[in-house]
């Protein structure tokens, strides 16, 4: 496997794309909660919507992968499933050792953001 260097442009675009995905996740979550759906269903559906937005933005803009591939979708689902679990584990572990919710959230988000960037660059949208 050939590794390419990480470019500043990709990092900036990834952060913007990820931020956009989080905003979509939050808005959809709030709208579904207003529609009286359960919290769990609202969060699951909003996460899927945010992940879909992140996929499109990162595929087309961040990593400039114009050719559609079913394997990219599968690798993206695998990556996000793994990083969601890692996010939860880091959050729980940080809470256990510090009892600081915001710190736990930030640590978990930071770890999963780094893993998602690397995973998308070298696994999902590899050239």
Short recap of the structure:
The protein has 127 residues and is an all-alpha fold.
Description:
The chain is globular and about 40 Å long. It has helices spanning 8-34, 39-62, 70-98, 101-124. The chain starts with 7 loop residues before the first helix and ends with a helix. The chain contains 4 helices and no strands. The model has no long low-confidence stretch (mean pLDDT 90). The chain folds into 2 domains: 7-64; 67-127. The chain is an all-alpha fold.
Number of strands: 0
Number of domains: 2
Strand residues, percent: under 5%
Give the overall average pLDDT.
90
Q: Compute the CA-based radius of gyration.
A: 16 Å
Question: Topology, please?
Answer:
Elements: H1 8-34, H2 39-62, H3 70-98, H4 101-124
Helix pairs in contact: 1-2, 3-4
List keywords for this structure.
127 residues, mainly alpha, globular
């Amino acid at each position: 496997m050939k590794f390419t260097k990480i470019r500043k442009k990709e990092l900036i675009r990834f952060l913007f794309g990820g931020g956009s995905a989080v905003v979509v996740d939050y808005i959809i979550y709030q709208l579904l909660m207003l529609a009286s759906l359960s919290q769990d269903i609202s969060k699951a559906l909003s996460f899927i919507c945010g992940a879909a937005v992140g996929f499109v933005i990162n595929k087309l803009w961040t990593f400039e992968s114009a050719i559609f591939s079913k394997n990219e979708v599968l690798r993206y689902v695998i990556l996000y499933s793994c990083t969601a679990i890692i996010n939860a584990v880091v959050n729980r572990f940080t809470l256990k050792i510090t009892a600081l919710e915001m710190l736990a959230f930030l640590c978990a988000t930071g770890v999963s953001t780094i893993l998602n960037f690397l995973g998308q660059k070298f696994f999902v949208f590899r050239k």
